[in-house]
Automatic annotation (TrEMBL):
<feature type="transmembrane region" description="Helical">
    <location>
        <begin position="413"/>
        <end position="436"/>
    </location>
</feature>
<keyword id="KW-1133">Transmembrane helix</keyword>
<comment type="similarity">
    <text>Belongs to the GerABKA family.</text>
</comment>
<feature type="region of interest" description="Disordered">
    <location>
        <begin position="474"/>
        <end position="496"/>
    </location>
</feature>
<feature type="transmembrane region" description="Helical">
    <location>
        <begin position="328"/>
        <end position="346"/>
    </location>
</feature>
<dbReference type="InterPro" id="IPR050768">
    <property type="entry name" value="UPF0353/GerABKA_families"/>
</dbReference>
<dbReference type="InterPro" id="IPR004995">
    <property type="entry name" value="Spore_Ger"/>
</dbReference>
<keyword id="KW-0812">Transmembrane</keyword>
<keyword id="KW-0472">Membrane</keyword>
<feature type="compositionally biased region" description="Basic and acidic residues">
    <location>
        <begin position="476"/>
        <end position="496"/>
    </location>
</feature>
<feature type="transmembrane region" description="Helical">
    <location>
        <begin position="358"/>
        <end position="378"/>
    </location>
</feature>
<feature type="transmembrane region" description="Helical">
    <location>
        <begin position="286"/>
        <end position="308"/>
    </location>
</feature>
<protein>
    <submittedName>
        <fullName>Spore germination protein</fullName>
    </submittedName>
</protein>
<feature type="transmembrane region" description="Helical">
    <location>
        <begin position="384"/>
        <end position="406"/>
    </location>
</feature>
<dbReference type="Pfam" id="PF03323">
    <property type="entry name" value="GerA"/>
</dbReference>
Length: 496
């Protein structure tokens, strides 16, 4: 819609009525009770505006002013608006429509060439609650909601530095969704910031309903199964990321914030590590690295050993495998495929069922189906154990999108291993590692800075040092006056 310039409020109101014709949500209030010659008219959407406050504080006072002898001036009427906060002056019909859709009520005054809008939201929002996915034992218990202002406020409460900067965007031709990026100006890489702003500004969507659409639009490798942007519903994790020079993207209506640029090892480190003793946190990080490998290659490794490389299995263990395999009509690959598909179906069913029933279906269903499959001779007991251990290992990955990528890549590895044994598994793992090394976002490598800043700093990105040494290393960097690390790769125009 092209901007329409109107000469008076009467023309603006007439055009607004034409656009909203047939929409019963639009409320038009004539303040002086007259239908033909209104001194002032208020227009709003009754599902968005707090009508109770509007009637008590605005309409009632304006009607009293209108009944005064000789009538009030426009300045007197506008004083009632300024008691509620900021007043926007609108001269174009597009601006009026956008403000009405954003929980504003618009006032048209007789004889004026512009309209006046004030925000007065009346819809309910979800209260701040504990995160549902990123649970922890120690640390803060509050998580983001669908209200952008609440989410920004939770970040501002934790960072009181004047270096905290914010930029706003409006994405979606129809939805007009507000998006805000937050960063620390003294820590962020300016090249990454400029490129990220350029990509967000280039998004062309009719409706923006979730931050996932932003993530898919601005990432470098669209068809990569690995997420290149970290998402979190925890304010403490967002603040920690900003302290490391990251940029946070918040979307109105979404309880998840995007953290960019993100690296591979950051996907394996939950926020809870910051609230545990460093030796226990590092122990858990080692466990996660092991379970990552098990989750990705566990069934494939078992298929390779029992199908092509029996000589690698100790004799007592081999006899156990052969006795369990006796009478099974399917090859090992088909066994693994059946159990993996069944496990994924149970996992998906547990997510879709009500919370009370979901846990029962996932646990009891897995036990019953696994035991029934063994008793009927469809699969062997070792295969059930391998698939169960693989599924449990995938739950230790703190980032849900990374765990999904590992579950997805597990199947092509099984196919390769079923064809060529350990050679196929090695080729598949090499391709995955090569792909991870090639990923980048806004010039930052997915494995950056592993191996590029020396052994000491690379280890610090994987393992957590004690708090006092973390502070000492930070002071050393500040005192050395090191220049900011520039991006390895940059494209796009400079952001104004």
């Amino acid at each position: 819609m092209e901007p329409l310039h109107m000469s008076t409020c009467a023309n603006l109101l007439q055009e607004l009525k034409r656009i909203y014709a047939g929409n019963e949500l639009l409320i038009i209030r004539n303040l002086d009770g007259s239908v033909t010659d209104d001194e002032a008219v208020i227009v709003y959407l009754n599902s968005l505006v707090d009508e109770k406050r509007l009637n008590q504080h605005i309409i009632r006072k304006m009607n009293l002013d209108l009944r005064k002898e000789n009538g009030p001036t426009n300045e007197v009427l506008l004083n009632s608006l300024f008691t509620l906060g900021e007043v926007s002056i609108l001269t174009e019909i597009n601006e009026i429509i956008n403000h009405i859709a954003d929980a504003h009520f618009v006032v048209f005054l007789k004889g004026q060439a512009e309209a006046y809008a004030t925000k007065l939201p009346g819809f309910e929002t979800r209260a701040i609650d504990e995160p549902q996915i990123e649970l922890n034992v120690r640390g803060p218990r509050e998580g983001f909601t669908e209200d952008l202002q609440k989410n920004v406020g939770m970040v501002l409460r934790r960072i009181k530095s004047p270096h905290l900067k914010a930029k706003s965007f409006v994405i979606g031709d129809e939805s007009q969704t507000k998006v805000m990026i937050l960063y620390l100006g003294d820590r962020v890489d300016p090249n990454v910031l400029n490129e990220l702003c350029h990509r967000i500004d280039s998004i062309q969507l009719d409706f923006l309903s979730d931050s996932t659409q932003i993530e898919e639009w601005i990432q470098d490798s669209t068809f990569s199964p690995f997420p290149q942007i970290l998402n979190s519903e925890r304010p403490d994790r967002v603040v920690t990321a900003m302290n490391r020079g990251k940029i946070v993207i918040m979307t109105d209506g979404t309880p998840n914030a995007l953290i960019a640029p993100s690296t591979f090892f950051e996907m394996l480190h939950p926020s809870e590590d910051q609230f545990e003793r460093f030796y226990f946190a590092n122990f858990l990080r080692i466990i996660r690295l092991i379970t990552l490998i098990v989750s990705l290659s566990g069934p494939s490794f078992y298929i390779a050993l029992t199908t092509f490389h029996l000589e690698m299995i100790p004799t007592p263990l081999l006899m156990t495998f052969l006795s369990a395999k006796a009478g099974i009509p399917f090859p090992t690959f088909i066994e693994a495929l059946i159990m993996e598909v069944a496990f994924e179906v149970l996992r998906e069913a547990s997510l879709r069922l009500p919370r009370i029933m979901g846990q029962s279906v996932s646990i009891v269903g897995a036990l019953i189906i696994g035991e029934a499959a063994v008793q009927s001779g469809i699969v062997s007991r070792p295969m059930v154990i391998v698939v169960a251990m693989t599924g449990i290992a995938s739950f230790t990955i703190p980032t849900y999108s990374t765990a999904i990528a590992l579950r997805l890549l597990r199947f092509p590895l099984m196919f390769l291993t079923a064809l060529t044994g350990m050679f196929g598994l090695s080729v598949g793992m090499f391709v995955i590692i090569f792909h991870i090394c090639s990923l980048r976002f806004c010039g930052v490598l997915f494995l950056d800075p592993l191996g590029t800043e020396g052994f000491r700093k690379s280890v610090q990105k994987i393992f957590l040092p004690p708090v006092r040494y973390r502070g000492r290393l930070k002071r050393e960097r500040n005192e050395s006056h090191e220049p900011k690390r520039q991006s390895h790769y940059f494209h796009g125009k400079e952001w104004d």
